[in-house]
Design a protein that fits this description.
single chain, 347 residues, alpha/beta, 5-stranded parallel β-sheet, 3-stranded antiparallel β-sheet, 41% helix
Length: 347
């Protein structure tokens, strides 16, 4: 009996010790799930997120549950949609694409001219599905940026995305934070107190997701015409819903061989994707050439951190800087008027 009690006591002590230490490594509250928003969930509004598993950053999520400064959102603004690269919990807030672009557009920490609603695990089909809700919740944008890191997507996922989510104010972060249920509060508190369990679960889910065969142009059975038709239907839908500029921001993967970096694009889907963007009046921005220039001139790599493999994982601070400047110059100055004054081009 004593041995059993000692074992239980040791387990409890080690459990709390590991979770306490993990709070400085990987911790944050749980998400709030919803049915009528741009993304299927948001981070707990007015919360902090510590991430040292890949890079290191402490990120504050705003009152809407997104990674933005808490400043006033100036009209009009650039609305940014995307997945984990653009949500950017791996770099400090002032180093991410949205913040750098905000500075380039003349904004500050207190006067925002960009607004980032990117959320992890939100690929292009999910962005399209939530597009109507996104522009419904944030109706005063002058342009939408859609971030992607691949040009290959499942035809069935693109077709499913045509059944879009309609926006309801009950799904906004501000509303949800004011009307938290006891269950939501308990779930968030438990996740906040058990960051180690959250880390293990996220790693396992990530490995499970990554183990599946990617749906891409190089996949056996890929039909170019089916893919083009499905992609065109999805892009036509959001193009008809939004008359201002839509910029598709594509940052390709990189690969290394004998200390040389190459840009990796999907040969089967890339030209189709770019062509469908142009056919629907969308601006396609490929940062691959900018990545190569940064590497050749300064040996700068856009992906990877000191605690991860070079060239792998998410955009690092250099990658965000390159992406933001490539997005801004020369595209946004030609399109946007802030305060009826054309934004100057950066030198």
């Amino acid at each position: 009996m004593k041995t059993c009690l000692k074992a239980i006591s040791a387990f409890i002590c080690s459990f709390f010790l590991v979770n306490f230490l993990c709070m400085f490594y990987y911790s944050g509250p749980g998400d709030l799930y919803r049915d009528h928003g741009a993304t299927r969930s948001i981070r707990m509004p007015d919360s902090r997120y510590v991430n040292a598993a890949e890079g290191f950053a402490v990120v504050h999520f705003d009152r809407n549950g997104y990674n933005n400064m808490d400043g006033k959102l100036e009209k009009p603004y650039v609305l940014i949609m995307g997945s984990s690269h653009m949500e950017a919990t791996y770099v400090w807030q002032e180093q991410n694409t949205a913040s750098i672009l905000n500075d380039l557009l003349g904004g500050t920490d207190t006067d925002l001219r960009t607004y980032n609603i990117a959320h992890a695990n939100t690929p292009l089909p999910d962005i399209i599905k939530g597009f109507q809700a996104g522009i419904g919740e944030f109706p005063d944008s002058c342009a939408v940026v859609i971030e992607i890191y691949d040009t290959s997507f499942s035809v069935s996922d693109l077709q499913d995305a045509l059944q879009q989510t309609s926006y309801n104010v009950d799904s906004s972060g501000a509303y949800l934070s004011r009307h938290l249920t006891d269950g939501q509060k308990l779930r968030s508190s438990l996740i906040g107190c058990m960051p180690f369990a959250k880390y293990v679960l996220n790693r396992q889910l990530g490995n499970f997701s990554g183990s599946k065969d990617p749906v891409s142009g190089s996949q056996t059975g890929f039909e170019a015409n089916d893919y083009k038709t499905a992609l065109n239907a999805a892009f036509s839908l959001i193009r008809n819903e939004y008359t201002d500029p839509i910029i598709v921001l594509y940052h390709p993967e990189v690969d290394f061989c004998k200390n040389n970096m190459t840009i990796v694009r999907d040969e089967d889907s890339y030209d189709i994707f770019k062509g469908v963007c142009e056919d629907n009046g969308m601006i396609f921005v490929d940062t691959g050439d900018a990545f190569m220039r940064a590497f050749e001139d300064h040996l700068v790599v856009p992906y990877g951190f000191q605690n991860t493999a070079i060239g792998d994982g998410h955009l690092n601070a250099d990658g965000h800087r390159i992406v933001a400047r490539e997005l801004y110059q020369p595209n946004l100055p030609k399109l946007l008027y802030i305060g009826f004054k054309l934004i100057p081009q950066i030198p």
